[in-house]
Amino acid sequence: MVEPPNGPASYWTQANALLRKNLTYQKRNKKTTIRLISYPFILCLLLVLLQGLVNHELDKPSNKCGCQCVDTAGNGQCQKVCGIQYSTPDQVGTCAIPSPPEWPPLLQVPAPQYRAVMTDLFPSNDLPDSSCRGTGLCPAAILCTGSNQSLGGALAGNLVPSAFTANLSDSLIGLAQFVLGTASWPRIVNYLEPAFFSDLPVYNVLRKCSSNSTLSVPFQEGLLSFNQDVICVPGLQLWRNSSSVINDELYKGFRKGNPERKINEIAAAYDFLNTGNSNFNVSIWYNSTYKNDTGNAPTALLRVTRSINLASNAYLQFLRGPAMKILSEFVKEMPKPETQLRLDFSSLLGPLFFTWVILLLFPVILTALVYEKSQKLRIMMKMHGLGDGPYWLISYVYFLAISTAYMLCFVIFGSVIGLKFFTLNDYSIQFVFYFVYINLQITLAFLAAGFFSNVKTATVVGYICVFGAGLLGGFLFQSFVQDASFPRSWITVMELFPGFTLYRGLYEFSQYSFIGNYMGTKGMRWGDLSASTNGMKEVMTIMVVEWLLVLLVAYYIDKVQSTGSRTSPLFFLKDFRKKGLSSFRRPSLRRQGSQVLVDMEKPDVAQEREKIVQLLLEPGINDGIICDNIKKVYPGRDGNPEKFAVRGLSLALSRGECFGMLGPNGAGKTSFISMMIGLIEPTAGTAYVQGLDIRNHMGEIYTSMGVCPQHDLLWEALTGREHLLFYGRLKNLKAPALHQAVEESLKSVNLFYGGVADKPAGKYSGGMKRRLSVAISLIGDPKVVYMDEPSTGLDPASRNNLWNVVKRAKQDRVIILTTHSMEEAEVLCDRIGIFVDGDMQCIGNPKELKARYGGSYVFTMTTSSDHEEDVEHMVQRLSPGAKRVYHISGTQKFEMPKQEVKIAEVFQAVESAKSRFEVFAWGLADTTLEDVFIKVARGTQAINVLT
Q1: In the 8-state DSSP scheme, what is residue 248?
Q2: Quick one: which H or E segment has residue 774?
Q3: Could you tell me if 855 and 898 are in contact, meaning their C-beta atoms sit under 8 angstroms apart?
Q4: Can you give the pLDDT at residue 723?
Q5: Domain ranges within the chain, ordered by starting residue
Q6: If you ran DSSP here, which 8-state letter would residue 77 be given?
Q7: Cα 365 from Cα 403, distance rounded (Å)
Q8: Parallel, antiparallel, or unpaired for β 79-82 and 67-70?
Q9: Long-range pairs for 606-613 at CB < 8 Å and ≥24 separation?
């Protein structure tokens, strides 16, 4: 292979060319970029607006600490006094509480409908019948065990009192005598014990309840006065033989609990272990299902102090008698300052909104990749020397830079306007999370692009993925994450879907920022990732693994499809085998096909075949292209037979030669060109370009090849100059030679003057685009150029100018040109081949073809219809072998063999005819290339019909 003057472009030269082109393209699409960035701005501003409306409502007096006008001095004048005692229960959360109220400690007791009863899972005879649930009289089950059953039984009997005898004049001391219980849910803070401000009753747990066991207890806390009904509940102490039995029943009780909130049916359980007269050792199970911890919210305060107090009192009474007690009078919260009720909307809606914001990049990247694929721009770049490695490197870095800038703008803007979602969580965690995900998203776009060939379809599917992932995450996946009973392994399986992975990470950020805003603390920090309830570490691990796996799969699929044909899926084994054999076998030109067919009726075609045989045995340095019996057969589908597009073409072209391919539509010209430029693979045979086989070395061939496709493959946003600069760099042209070559190319195709060179190609006319495509095919001194109908759509002046360009360009290079213009073929082509039904019917220069297939003159005469026979008799006298080929309305056309006709006799006969009848028009012409083309095409088609 003879390299171009500068040699093929290196890896980094190709990368530089593509990077410059992408940056220029991005510069031309400022409006699209602004629209893209405005999307997260609009969503963030919407959240700020919603936050402002919510804050306006929360700032109303009804949502602040209560105040009243009180006559504090006794002089009849009131002063405004605020505090918890003047507030409604809804306002208490915002009040300053320097001395929090004292509340009796409570035992967590299941609601009546959830208490343990005898079932298939609980077959024990000491449990009540399930009918008690209908009456609401089921006892609260307390399980006990220990190494000493007699001692344990005595202690179990002392856990709850047998009767109540309390002085209620001092409510706290009086209530401390009771074993009070509740089925209400605790809160994160208990400044007001929810048991006394809910619709659920407060229970008094006794060994046995009597008919008058319900009390109405007056309660005084500051200025809050109310009566609290206390209902008796029997405490059922049940002995079990071991702690394993208790564990089993607790597990079954949990499984049989409320399906919505998973309430355990057992109130408490005690294992007195080796407790004795001088040793008190006990393990306590408390009802931990009542802790109100949805998702990553902090666990609510657990009611465990009363359970511990019961065990302590039971042991003291065993040692010292029933009068001995340790009173647990009250529990209280820590003091707090006055606060404002705040609800952070960015944390509540952030997972859904921000999932949409980040996923919006996916259809943008996917559309860009599919656009290059559907418009064949990727193949066009590859055919001009751009390798897969530089393309992937620059495209990936380009999209990564855009995504990073997009995310930085998003985070910075959200932080500037004060969204807690961003400001409370550690920025370094956010950066790592977003950076890993946008890498995964880019690789997913590359992978998905391999399955789309239409931009509109890819766009629709991309946006369905965006909104579908957000909605499924918000209304399906989040409910599973918040459900503590849902298996964590299934959560991990669901997170393998990238949309759910993103949503889970954003959900973690939102939970930490919401609680941080509510509690006045910070959001997520690196230390929080080790928490069992924090899923961020798991999410990041999944994203990194998927990123690497998807990258490999996407590159593999792109490698298979990058040439536009289905490369063998085991191409890497093929390359490995080729490398392994290269040390002892050099590649050489070999004869393809099993037999050389010689058609005696086509000596020119047969002669070309024989020429190929000699060239393959002794290849010459000037042979630019050698096609050796190359064939293309398309398989039959839907019952149709196979389609023979190219039937064993053999052709040899030398440097400095322009070869024209003529043929009717469907003759196989495009299939032949497609095989030569690597779009499709030959079914049999092969071709050599500069000594390289098109089946194995298209990558090297592309470095010295130029292509002017039938349809203009251009970026509408780039100018003509920018197109030529890009493709010139791919051909390893460097300044100042690059700029000189670009200017000369623009001048040669008449695109230099009038500012045309710096207009976007999308504003070019069809003829201007065609001229630019020709200039692209010739930039960088390619040694082989394929031009598919290069003058289509050009005016006569532009066409003549283009012909001059091609004439100058064919020096020291091979040009294969297809055209339907016989004039163009005759002017430009050194040799012409006529292609019909996949076969080369004839080959030679224009003069040879006209002499071989057009050995006749064409005589035309127009008269009145009354003298048509006179004209026919005159022609027969001049040339007995003449044939009439056209006849309509007095106009007749005849083909007259040249050996039978003398031009002077024709003139004399016409002058004689004019004296006898009126002749409107007449003419004598030699055979044209168009006549040859029609004759060959019709003759071949007639033979095919007969056969």
Answers
A1: H
A2: helix 766-778
A3: yes
A4: 94
A5: 65-95, 100-332, 352-561, 654-678+697-845, 855-926
A6: -
A7: 9
A8: antiparallel
A9: 608/650, 608/651, 608/652, 608/840, 608/843, 609/650, 611/652, 612/650, 612/651, 612/652
Q: Per CATH, the architecture of 855-926 is what?
A: 2-Layer Sandwich (3.30)
Three-class DSSP category at 107: strand
Number of helices (H) and strands (E) in the chain: give both, helices first.
31, 26
The DSSP string of 292-352 is ---TTSPPPPP--HHHHHHHHHHHHHHHH-TT-------EEPPPB--------HHHHHHHH
Token pair, residue 451, equals 């399955």
Question: What local confidence, expressed as pLDDT, does residue 562 receive?
Answer: 65
SS3 assignment, position 743:
helix
Show the tokens assigned to 185: 């849910």
Number of neighbouring beta carbons within 10 Å of residue 312: 14
CA–CA distance, 374 with 368 (Å, rounded to integer): 10
Residue reference for tokens 């401000």: 197
Which residues fall within 8 angstroms of residue 71, CB to CB, at 6 or more apart?
A: 77, 78, 79
Which tokens hold the place of 819?
């055209």
Q: Give SS3 for 391.
A: helix
Q: 368 in helix, strand or coil?
A: helix
Phi, psi dihedral angles at 378 (to 5 degrees): -65, -45
Q: What's the Cα-to-Cα distance from 603 to each of 597, 607, 646, 723, rounded to whole Å?
A: 11, 6, 19, 45
Angle between helices 361-374 and 455-472 (to 10 degrees): 160
Superfamily of domain 654-678+697-845 in CATH is P-loop containing nucleotide triphosphate hydrolases (3.40.50.300)
> At how many degrees (to 10) do helices 427-449 and 361-374 cross?
30
Inter-helix orientation angle 427-449/388-416, to 10°: 140
Q: Torsion angle, CA of 368/370/375/377, rounded to 10 degrees?
A: 70
Q: What is the chain's length?
A: 947
Q: What is the DSSP letter of 636?
A: P
Quick check: helix, strand or coil at residue 562?
coil
Amino acid at 731: K
Contact 445, 75 (CB under 8 A): no
Is the separation of the CB atoms in 142 and 159 below 8 Å? yes
Residue with tokens 């006394």: 196
Token pair in block for residue 455: 């931009």
- What token pair was written down for 138? 């089921």
Please answer whether residues 728 and 740 qualify as being in contact, where contact means their C-beta atoms are separated by less than 8 angstroms: no
Residue pair 191/221 in contact (Cβ under 8 Å)? The answer is no
Q: Which two tokens stand for residue 285?
A: 């199970």
Q: What is the mean pLDDT of each run of 10 residues along the chain (947 residues)?
A: 59 92 88 84 83 79 80 75 75 80 88 86 81 86 93 90 68 77 82 81 87 71 70 91 90 62 83 92 87 53 88 91 85 82 74 91 94 89 89 94 92 87 93 96 95 92 94 90 83 93 93 82 89 89 96 90 54 48 40 43 81 78 80 84 88 90 86 88 90 86 89 91 93 89 92 89 91 92 90 86 89 88 88 88 84 79 89 89 86 85 87 89 82 75 52
| DSSP, residue by residue, 651-670 | EEEETT-EEEEE--TTSSHH
Q: Report the candidate in 820, 721, 720 with the shortest Cα–Cα distance to residue 767.
A: 720
Please name the helix (run of DSSP H) or strand (run of DSSP E) that holds residue 861, with its range, or none.
Answer: strand 856-863
Amino acid at 117: V
Residues 6+ apart with CB under 8 A from 664: 836, 937
- In 3D space, the residue among 749, 752, 755 whose CA is nearest the CA of residue 739 turns out to be 752
- Among 362, 280, 286, smallest CA distance to 317 is for 280
Residue 102: closest CA among 332, 329, 303, 305: 332
**DSSP letter for each residue of 804-829:** HHHHHHTTTSEEEEE-S-HHHHHHH-
Give the integer Cα–Cα distance in Å for 947 and 944.
Answer: 5
pTM: 0.72
- Strand ranges in 743-836 using DSSP code E only, listed in sequence order: 784-788, 814-818, 831-836
